[in-house]
Amino acid sequence: xxxxxxxxxxxxxxxxxxxxxxxxxxxxxxxxxxxxxxxxxxxxxxxxxxxxxxxxxxxxxxxxxxxxxxxxxxxxxxxxxxxxxxxxxx
Length: 90
Prior knowledge:
By secondary structure, the chain is an alpha+beta fold.
């Protein structure tokens, strides 16, 4: 699971359990937290780091803020790990 935190100094922090394993051997990269006051920065980070269209990144953030579960990426473990590294998870 991916935790996106926008800190008071404006820096973006990504933390993760990395992924959620599914029964079929696939994995999900899940958005787990966005600061409601810094949604625009979260959209920008997703757009730039996961190679999303602006409309898609905004849709993910808006869906999360509306209380929906947001899956950013689904694939095998290696693919999800590669996508997670693009968003600087530490």
